[in-house]
Amino acid sequence: MFAGRYLWWMLMGIGIFMFAALSLDYITWLTIQLSGCGDMAGACEPALRLISGVLKPACIWTAIGVLFMATLLRLHALSLIWFWGPIVAIWFVASTPILLFLAGDPAALTQPATLAQLPVAFLFLAAFVTYLMFALEDGDVLPLAASVSLSLALRLTAVYGALAGVAFMPELSRIAGTLLDMPALSVVIALAQPYLRTVLTLGTGSMAPAYAVLAAFIAALAASLLPHAAAPQPSRSTIMLRRLRR
Fold first, then answer.
1. In degrees rounded to 5, what are phi and psi of residue 211?
2. What angle do CA 178, 88, 85 make, to 5 degrees?
């Protein structure tokens, strides 16, 4: 999937999500007003159950699925799926609770307290998705760094972001145990998360180290977008000297 098509699918997914979060409530109100079911007790319940209980969750999960699959296809097209695919999957799973919360209460996004509590995995995901929207197939821009040091920095910071997504997601133990039908796994994850949080925050309990790594990740992504200078061509005298040495 090239950059233009990826951008189109991402906009489609965001559009579906915004429609479900912002418009369906007004559509529900309009349906009640036009049908006149509000005059009879319980007459609006089937419509409310259909829109709020079926249509809205279906749109939200469809939007998340579109965003996730489009990102995986983009990584596959760039031959980056084997390392970055699992990382992106963890980021999406860790970002799902905040997406569901915002879908239920879009006004919360305008509150500073909500913005301050956005999961760090969501911020990693947003930065990486933005990076993938660039035309990385061009010859002068290599996907995710050309130098070894820059590639290593990207991978290390991405792994940190994935671990942060696991450590700072309280719902992970319950979700993993329910989906895999392994209650013991829920207990193991719940016991391991505090220790992982301690390691990732360097024992401070603050999110400052996570934000510092996020800043390094964004800086590395930006640096990888810069055109890399080609190796200088040898001069004619150098070429002649090499021929004489042969």
1. -70, -30
2. 100
Q: What is the pTM of this model?
A: 0.81
The secondary structure of residue 21, as a DSSP letter, is: I
DSSP per residue, 132-171: HTS-TTSTT--TT-SSHHHHHHHHHHHHHHHHHHHHT-TT
Token pair 């005059």 is found at 39
Query: What gap in Å lies between CA 89 and CA 136, rounded to an integer?
Result: 21
Q: Do 141 and 135 contact (CB within 8 A), yes or no?
A: yes
Return d(Cα 132, Cα 85) in angstroms, integer. 13
Q: CA dihedral in degrees (209, 211, 213, 214; nearest 10)?
A: 170
Angle between helices 81-104 and 148-167 (to 10 degrees): 40
pLDDT exceeds 60 at position 140: no
- Residue 81 CB: number of other CB atoms within 10 A? 15
pLDDT in tens, 72-107: 998 988 888 889 999 999 999 888 888 888 877 776
